[in-house]
Design a protein that fits this description.
The chain is an alpha+beta fold. The protein has helices at residues 4-10, 12-30, 48-60, 78-94, 140-152, 181-202, 211-245, 248-271, 283-290, 292-306, 312-339, 347-375, 388-391, 393-407, 409-427, 445-456, 478-491, 503-514, 528-538, 543-547, 569-586, 599-605, 607-633, 636-660, 671-695, 700-727, 735-766, and strands at 65-71, 98-102, 108-116, 119-126, 167-174, 207-209, 461-469, 497-502, 558-564, 592-597.
């Protein structure tokens, strides 16, 4: 062990050269880094829910759309309808990849037309005749009839026209490319241009929603975070280091190490074929703030050795001999915190853990290699000749803290126990929320559009119930259609459900029209042949507009589309369970397969993985870290004691989240595992120095004071940088990441207090044997 510093000294230039080569390689990878927002990437491809959704896409096509909605006094006024017609035409013609438009002026309705001899035939025609839309045309009775038909039509009511006739939407269905970034940009650019021009022209406020719009806003927010975080975090780190060290060495050396470490980490993400997503946007600030710790501890140990007047080379070798192993241990425990996330079934969370773990080890290697090379060329600062207490106000403060803890350890223990009790109480109010739309700020136009459509129409969130009966007649079987209609009737009264549509609606409207619009005939015919005959009369031409996305071409499968209010994932999951309960009751004894699918289902589905993953990863991290500490310190008692101060901030953060109403989501679920891995670093450095002092013959109280006076300084420095670095995330475009930053900063700050107060108090009372 005594030769470690000597070996690092001898190999310093070879190591630095190797690091430079790797930096070039990872820098090349960094140039290929991409951003991804595909909800299909949230779960593993073999997940049953995801497999159901992929089968749905294969049979029915993609669910992506762009919707433009607005509110007026009367949507059936001639002027408003002409505006809707122009908007519908522009969306269809100017937005690439548009497949079909649904609006009041493009809507089709079923009519029964006489053909002579008392016979009639079914016809599908426009709800609003084209003649009514001509400039200067007046058609009061026709428009009133259109109003009554639209508000009574289950395919139109609440989907394209609000129940009161004061709100309407134009919906453009898109071809299946909604997660291609270039296509998303083209669609959003065209849609926003059209909406802006039509808004200025008409004086109306237009609300723009849909998956491509959300994706584009999301990608823009991620890009702004990636552009903002590295320079701002670096600036904050530099200012703090300059304030604490007051020399160029203490600023430039840590800053250089973490910036190179960031290049390595982002480069390996790209080289591994992965991409940046909503969760992994926190990696840059994480790497920048975590990487400071090892360099600060190396500098602190080097300064202490150099102050003894042994010369630069000897001081550096002794410092690296003493500090390299503790730094390795802290890197391992931090890495364990991140690697514990690898057990999470949510892919972005898992990848964030894995790549951050790589970054931690990369930072350790760079801290050692670069520090040895740079410090070997720098002169020892003259200020180190002065006594520590005289040159540093922080050292004097830590000495007073040590004296207080040694005299009153039980005060600290009782206060900590009270915090634990209050935290557990607050944690009982924790909730889970994984709705991706709530990841954007409330003032984002996409969020406001979703709220508008939820309040005035049926919302933009869709669930699809796929129905595939056995037998050759498929969904034309009356029994299947009646069960579908019964399920719609059962779930429509749910507060969260805005509207439902299905093939059963079309069949019942056809039957009613065939029966001279007799309301009593709004039923499913008694035979499959009668159903087939009704459908045959409207197949092709305008009839296909009604049947689009309600059934497959061969009628083997059908859909029940459920429009849902803008609710959270917790409520959505509860709604899905209620719908499944009703479906099980209504389809009891029916032969076939059915499932509830949709991108919203995927997001709601991961809710339980978030909670299970948090508990599993935190438990795994605590267990592994405890074992590492016990083995490294050669004392199981010390290993257990080391965990206690770091459990306190985790409990406190859970309590704060519960009381403040901060939900557990894709970002905040990582706080405990990440924080425990980072927070335990100071504990390792404290106990390593404490053990060294005790083995050298110091009494427990004196060992505590010495440790606080020496290692405590680096602990405070690194914790301040970490806390400030996490607080930079307050400027994130995503409220979820803001919560992550605040909670991590709180965890690090409380963990520091635990290491400066609770840990010494435990050592003072327990007096573990070494």
């Amino acid at each position: 062990m005594n030769s470690l510093g000597h070996r690092l000294w001898r190999l310093r230039w070879w190591s630095l050269a190797a690091a430079a080569v790797l930096t070039v390689v990872f820098g090349y990878g960094l140039s290929r880094l991409r951003i991804n927002n595909d909800p299909l990437e949230l779960l593993d491809r073999d997940d049953p829910e995801l497999q159901d959704y992929l089968r749905f896409l294969d049979r029915f096509g993609h669910e992506a759309f762009v919707a433009v909605a607005f509110e007026v006094e009367d949507v059936f006024s001639p002027g408003t309808l002409r505006f809707v017609d122009r908007l519908s035409r522009r969306l269809r013609e100017e937005i690439p990849g548009g497949e079909s438009v649904l609006s009041l002026t493009e809507a089709r309705v079923i009519r029964s037309l006489p053909v002579g001899d008392g016979e009639a035939e079914l016809s599908v025609s426009r709800l609003i005749p084209r003649s009514v839309l001509a400039p200067g045309a007046t058609a009061g009775s026709e428009l009133e009839q259109a109003r009554q038909r639209a508000l009574a039509d289950p395919l139109l009511r609440d989907s394209v026209v609000g129940a009161g006739g004061r709100a309407t939407a134009v919906v453009l269905r898109l071809e299946p490319r909604s997660h291609d970034p270039n296509y998303v940009f083209q669609v959003t650019e065209a849609a926003e241009r059209i909406a802006a021009e039509e808004s200025r022209r008409s004086g109306r406020r237009l609300y723009l929603a849909g998956a491509p719009i959300f994706t584009d806003h999301y990608l823009g927010a991620v890009t702004r975070d990636l552009e903002l975080f590295p320079p701002l975090t670096t600036l904050v780190m530099v200012l703090l280091l300059a304030l604490l060290y007051r020399n160029a060495r203490g600023v430039l050396l840590p800053a250089g190490v973490v910036l190179v470490g960031l290049i390595w980490t982002l480069g390996v993400i790209a080289l591994a074929g992965s991409e940046i997503n909503l969760v992994s946007t926190i990696i840059p600030p994480l790497i920048l703030v975590i990487g400071v710790a090892d360099v600060v501890h190396i500098l602190n140990q080097y300064d202490e050795e150099a102050a003894a007047g042994v010369g630069r080379r000897r001081a550096l070798q002794r410092a690296m001999t003493h500090i390299t192993v503790p730094c390795l241990l802290t890197s391992l425990t931090t890495m364990v915190g991140f690697l514990s996330l690898a057990s999470n079934r949510v892919v972005p969370v898992r990848e964030t853990g894995l790549f951050s773990a790589f970054g931690v080890i990369a930072l350790f290697v760079l801290a050692v290699v670069v520090s040895v090379a740079v410090l070997s060329r720098l002169k020892v600062p003259r200020r180190l000749a002065r006594p520590a207490a005289a040159r540093d106000w922080l050292v004097r403060l830590l000495e007073r803290n040590g004296a207080l803890v040694v005299r009153r350890p039980w005060w600290v223990l009782v206060g900590s126990a009270a915090i634990v009790v209050l935290s557990i109480w607050g944690a009982t109010y924790l909730v889970v929320e994984t709705n991706l739309h709530r990841y954007l700020r409330h003032d984002d136009p996409v969020v406001q559009a979703h709220e508008f459509m939820a309040e005035n129409l049926a919302g933009v969130t869709e669930l699809q119930l796929t129905i595939t009966p056995e037998g050759t007649r498929g969904v034309k079987e009356p029994d299947t259609l009646r069960r579908m209609a019964a399920l719609q009737s059962a779930i429509l009264p749910f507060d969260e459900v805005g509207a439902t549509t299905s093939l059963a609606d079309v069949v019942r409207m056809l039957h009613r029209a065939w029966s001279d619009d007799d309301p009593a005939a709004y039923t499913v015919p008694d035979s499959a042949a009668a159903v087939a005959q009704l459908l045959l009369q409207i197949e092709g031409g305008d009839g296909d507009v009604l049947l689009a996305r309600l059934a497959t071409d061969d009628y083997r499968s059908a859909l029940i589309n459920v429009r849902v209010d803008n609710i959270g994932s917790r409520q959505l999951r509860a709604l899905i369970e209620r719908i499944e309960t009703e479906a099980s009751r209504i389809f009891d004894g029916w032969s076939g397969t059915r499932s509830i699918v949709g991108s919203a289902v995927i997001v709601a589905h991961i809710e339980r993985f978030v909670v299970d993953g948090q508990i599993r990863s935190l438990g795994l991290a605590l267990a592994v870290i405890c074992v590492i500490m016990a083995l490294a310190l050669r004392s199981w008692k010390l290993g257990l004691i080391s965990i206690l101060p770091n459990c306190l901030p985790i409990l406190l953060v859970w309590g704060v989240m519960g009381v403040a109403g901060i939900p557990i989501n894709l970002a905040t679920c990582m706080v405990p595992s990440i924080s425990i891995g980072i927070a335990v670093d100071d504990t390792i450095h404290f106990l390593a120095r404490y053990r060294r002092e005790v083995l050298a013959g110091a009494e427990v109280s004196e060992a505590i004071r010495t440790t606080l006076r020496t290692t405590g300084r680096a602990m405070v420095t690194t914790s301040l940088v970490l806390t400030a670095g996490f607080l930079v995330i307050l400027l994130s475009q995503f409220p979820t990441n803001v919560y992550f930053g605040v909670l991590c900063a709180l965890t690090i700050a409380v963990a520091l207090l635990g290491d400066l107060l609770l840990l010494p108090a435990l050592l003072r009372v327990a007096r573990p044997r070494l």
